Amino acid sequence: MAFSGVHRDRGELRIHESVEELSTNLADYIADLSEASVKERGVFAIALSGGSLIGLMGKLCEAPYNKTVDWAKWYIFWADERVVAKNHADSNYKLAKEGLLSKVPIVPSHVHSINDSLSAEEAGDEYEFDIRQLVKARMVCVSDISDCPKFDLILLGMGSDGHVASLFPNHSVLDVKNQWVSFITDSPKPPPERITFTLPVINSASNVVVVVTGESKAEAVHLAIDDLGPNCPSLPARVVQPTNGKLVWFLDKPAASKLESVQFCE
Ligand SMILES: O=C(O)[C@H](O)[C@@H](O)[C@H](O)[C@H](O)COP(=O)(O)O
């Protein structure tokens, strides 16, 4: 690894020499969290995002993880989803199903995706209701400091504009506090209609991992992590700050190239 350390208030930074190295370490990290969670409470509630993240998780489908991870204990959710049919090329469900879920023995009834026959608003409401039932059944923990669910792990990617999940810069969805799942119909990144975990839910998780690769994200990584004083723009990725949980950034060197807070060990 090119660098590994803890930032004063932006979580742990893990900067990798290559995307290949990042993928291996990411699979290892997720497998460890799964093991700890299954040991502690018998299940692992994990929320995925879309984009390049699923490809970067690919090593989980290979040895040793395909055999060693206790897949039957996984409960799968999405931190955000595009409101399109499940067989549509834009669907985050389809991406995860093809890239991960169909390759490991996940229990089909443990996969909690949106109802794709509803409007964005209805799909968001129904998804929140679904999660509420799983919190009642203790498959998902409840936060000790808010009324939010406490996912064992929320995995996020980040756009070059600093968005995470479907929380886009300067969008009113960033201010939603009284819901677990919200919706938007004007996403700047197509497709326009999406549902998303709200910020309080993301910040109530036990673990949040943000995975970012490539030079096109370097400026956003700098703005999301470095200490920029009072003039710091309020990037969605910057307000990801789990209250009682752990935040870890998985970066490759190009994505980390504008970070002021780190010195690479060559
Ligand atoms: O459904 C989505 O669009 C996402 O969940 C979104 O938040 C994604 O994670 C980022 O846009 C990064 O995507 P890339 O890693 O592909 O750039």
Automatic annotation (TrEMBL):
Record flagged with keyword Hydrolase: yes
BP-aspect Gene Ontology terms: carbohydrate metabolic process; pentose-phosphate shunt
Matches recorded under InterPro entries: 6-phosphogluconolactonase_DevB, 6PGL, Glc/Gal-6P_isomerase, NagB/RpiA_transferase-like
Pfam families registered for this protein in UniProt: Glucosamine_iso
Pathway entry: Carbohydrate degradation; pentose phosphate pathway; D-ribulose 5-phosphate from D-glucose 6-phosphate (oxidative stage): step 2/3
Transmembrane segments: none
GO cellular component terms given for this protein: cytoplasm
Catalysed reaction, written as an equation: 6-phospho-D-glucono-1,5-lactone + H2O = 6-phospho-D-gluconate + H(+)
Enzyme category, top tier: hydrolase
Any one GO molecular-function label of the UniProt entry: 6-phosphogluconolactonase activity
Enzyme Commission number: 3.1.1.31
Entry-linked NCBIfam families: pgl
Family, as annotated: Belongs to the glucosamine/galactosamine-6-phosphate isomerase family. 6-phosphogluconolactonase subfamily.
Full protein name: Probable 6-phosphogluconolactonase
Organism annotation: Citrus x changshan-huyou
